[in-house]
Amino acid sequence: MSASARRCFAAFLSFGLFVIPATLPAQARFPANEDLRHVRGVSAPRLSPDGKAAVVQITGATADGAKSHLWLVDLQQNNTRQLTYSPAADKQGEHDAAWLPDGTSVLFLAKRGEQVQLFRLPMQGGEAVPYGLKISPPADMKAETAALNVSSFAVAPDGRHIAILGKDPATAAEQKKQRDKDDAVWVDHDSHGSRVYLLALTQTGEADGPLVAVAVPPDVQSAAWNPDSEQLVVLSHAMNNTADLGPTGRTWLVRLDAPEHPEQLAAMPATAKNVVWSRDGKLLAFHAQSTKDAPPGYSDLYLYSLSGKSLRDLSSGFSGSISEEAPVFTADGESLLQSVEMGVKAGIAKFDVVSGQVSTLNFPAPVVRSLNTNQKQTGWLYLSSSSTQAAMLEFAPAPAEMARTVKIPDLLPESWKSAASQVVHWQNEGLTLEGLLYLPPQAAPGKPVPLIVDVHGGPLGAWNDDFAPLPQFLMGHGWAVFRPNPRGSSGYGAAFAAADKNDLGGGDYRDIMAGVDAVLKRFPVDENRLGLMGYSYGGEMAGFVEGKTARFKAIVSGAPVIDQYSEYGTENNSWYDRWYFGKPWEHPADAWRQSPLAGTARASTPFLLLQGEADKTDPLGQSEEMYRALRQAGVPVEMVTYPREDHGPLARAIFGYPSPEPWHGFDGRKRIVDFFEKAFAQSAK
Known about the structure:
Blueprint: H1 5-14, E1 17-19, E2 40-47, E3 53-59, E4 68-74, E5 79-82, E6 95-99, E7 105-111, E8 116-122, E9 129-130, E10 134-135, E11 146-147, E12 149-155, E13 161-167, H2 172-179, E14 194-200, E15 212-213, E16 220-225, E17 231-236, E18 250-255, E19 258-264, E20 273-277, E21 283-289, E22 299-305, E23 310-313, E24 321-322, E25 328-329, E26 335-342, E27 345-352, E28 358-360, E29 367-373, E30 380-385, E31 392-396, E32 404-406, E33 421-428, E34 431-438, E35 449-455, H3 469-475, E36 480-485, H4 494-497, H5 507-522, E37 525-535, H6 537-548, E38 554-558, H7 564-570, H8 575-581, H9 588-593, E39 607-612, H10 620-632, E40 637-642, H11 647-654, H12 664-683
Parallel strand pairs: 35-36, 35-37, 37-38, 38-39, 39-40
Antiparallel strand pairs: 1-2, 2-3, 3-4, 4-5, 6-7, 7-8, 8-9, 10-11, 12-13, 13-14, 14-15, 16-17, 17-18, 18-19, 20-21, 21-22, 22-23, 24-26, 25-26, 26-27, 27-28, 29-30, 30-31, 31-32, 33-34, 34-36
């Protein structure tokens, strides 16, 4: 576990829900390893201002470089066409699309040159044109006018301005020092921060003058316009890793006619994010750290009154968890629609603005995400999926009304054979727990199959019942897959999320093992052929399992935490870990008790480590420590490292989602299969 471990699995969702291209062989079968290199993703549906069209982002397959492109969906004719293309030098493609409010153009970000630029693509035809944004840095930067590297943007509802975020460019002197390799780094003393600028537009959507700097101190994180386009809320954090000491967020109210005089909203919490305005401009809805004792990143849904300068927590009693997607005010202003997790399901909840009463909307699919509408709310888009159905784009007149499926490219073909998950419930130590079990068709009474236990990341994460390539791939080898949600998982309320505080590898481990016992008791799986795997916190749990039991024939650990002492001192942020067990030097017994390394003297199970060399969340040294300890203890252990790979990207690659690294995921999956096959074969002798 680490400061950003939960983001490892949240990062899967940032790629959207995933689809399979229709170019696979026609014969129905479970996917082979190569097939997972041909998975595509769909994300970020954006409804046009007139409600007749949409733009979606399609992420290409790993085998094709995993670039993203924008596709235009005609909702009336129910057809799609690719809208944007990119040169070979652009490795990421087009992303972060938004409509101009009059519907005449689509804006997006792309790197076609040295910087990421903001482009405008006219819908009547023609090529996408960059705005060519240049900035005059603040006087204290002593820098020349330079091109802005855009990180994000927000279009005003009236279409007359865009708020644009980007980091200060390097000065000419700094660039020369880089070329001369006079490049010593003074840690936590970077003078370049992310700032927000205003760009005025003409009636045709072109730039109308230079960028105007907003006097909000860096690092700026986001900007959100009010309905009349005269004010915006800007969120900023302190620079230079100050967040490692605790939350540093500040919220600013900026008037369009006075960008040099932002007003800080002092009552807004330091963890505020995903801010949206009510339709009358009187309230702000946003996410921030829960009022209950819960892991950092466990958010509640709040309202802030601009006139009364007061806060209300709308979701403190909600039995599920608030997801990362921003809330949406309904047209009458009386409710907020919010993406939520509810156990293994993910959907939309409706929160009453006055009473806080919550109800969940009913959808046929177990997982619904990416809810989107336009200013007039003339229609609604969302993505739905299940264990056997990859992403579908749905369009509905209203969120709770019957939706129709909209054609998007390359949906899951019949040739990709899938087996449905089953929700398994069990009891342990007074808790009701659940997980997902994937059984291959050949599993039957008298014909038990091997079982792979797959532990999710986090620990503040969860397995949802959506489409996942990896379990289908593993079932193709004749193995069942069990994905438990032990205590500490999201989706079950704040108390459940906090239930493993200062107890990592304790109650959560017992929950998983009780789940394994429940599966063995009820389903045709072979207790003599058990394997366990996990990534991030799942990899950490794999390390705990290594030192606690010999029930498994093989264990695979991806990017784990092994030693809470060394990981705490080398990860990219320690605030998350600090909540769980405090500063290790102040609580040495707690830190060591919750370190898998402490149990290696009792280890005996063959162990495989998969690790990204550029991992800043759970650094390379963690896997190296475990490898050395097990090797010197005489335990069969293997370690494979992947150059250039950071934490989340390697996870996405191994789990079968689009990755710019063409072979790392393929290699990781092959090694996982070979490792389990060898162990199961030896157990049969």
